[in-house]
Amino acid sequence: MKREETFNFSAGPSVLPEEALERAGKEILNYNGSGMSVMEMSHRSAFFQEIFDETKAKLRAALSVPDTHDILFLQGGASAQFSMVPLNLMEGGTADYAVTGNFSNIAAKEAQKYGTVHIAASSRDDNFSYIPPQSALDLSPEAKYFHYCANNTIYGTAWSYVPETPAPLVCDMSSEILSRPVDVSKYGVIYAGAQKNMAPAGVTVVIIDRSLAGREAPYTPLIMSYKTMIEKDSMYNTPPCWCIYMLGLVLDWLKSQGGVRGMEAIKHEKAAVIYDVIDNSALYKPCARRDSRSDMNVTFRTGDPELDALFARDAQARGLMNLKGHRSVGGMRASLYNAQSMEGVKTLAAFMKEFEREHHV
Length: 361
Ligand SMILES: *Cc1c(COP(=O)(O)O)cnc(C)c1O
What we know:
Number of domains: 2
Low-confidence stretches: none
Helix content: 25-40%
Order of helices and strands: EHHEHEHEEEEEEEHHHEEHEEH
Largest sheet: 7 strands, mixed
Strand order of the largest sheet: 2-10-9-8-5-3-4
Radius of gyration: 21 Å
Bound molecules: pyridoxal-5'-phosphate
Distance between the termini: 32 Å
Structural class: alpha/beta
Mean pLDDT: 97
């Protein structure tokens, strides 16, 4: 299949802006007159240091990260942060966790190894189809931090509010970072694996309030210490150079599209096109409650697993790629990240209607 014939709805790794991929292609053998590919150069070289510093500066500008916070480019994915957060911030005490899906559940389990996890909220009672309201948060007064996942990639739910907690907020923003402005000053730590909405897999962005560093458990591996990584400017060891470079290219594209405000302006519109089809359909049922719907990952099902499978197969044959839902939820999932075009969204909506006409009796 030709790229022009496809729209990619993958939940991650996911579609990237074509402009960024094209530029990477042009520069792949010879970056900026260096005679080398970015993949081939020392991370200590002036060429790479410039890429690194500029990418960091672009990200700081894109998210208006205040001076109180450092930006780190780490490895191990968002999953490594499930351990790094408690190792560095729990101090053997208690931390509050909101469990609203698969990843926040894993994060809470991982933290249990290092202290006491208090489940401050959970939506497990209804298969993670909703986000608990502020009034339902059961906060422990001694919590070292409050951890939540802003957008639940698998279930297709998103927090529509920033929780108010006495403890610092720690947030997994993997599947929604750069899709809207964020008041970073409200957060102790924001982390995100890049492969959903930022760059290829391999770099994890961590934005951390510097005053929280230096509290790590004595047995914390050096590579898992925020303090080490802040002091070494993410270069305690070799950073994921290529992914950082790609992130820089994606941030250039983002800027040309009006930045995070530009993304926020269209993300709701894009999601509404698909939710509209679902809400006006006798075949498709949404997986998430209306007040908790995600704009990034739209989840739905027909109720018949065989028909769901046929949907994904037929869609793929038409170039609408990767619409099969996560194995733990089933059904379908359309991920509408920043690089997903309105044209792709409308093509999917038209296919959904056509599929319903053919298969709904
Ligand atoms: C994909 C995802 C993860 C896991 O990310 P890895 O980079 O694979 O470790 C964690 N949290 C959320 C919200 C995700 O979407």
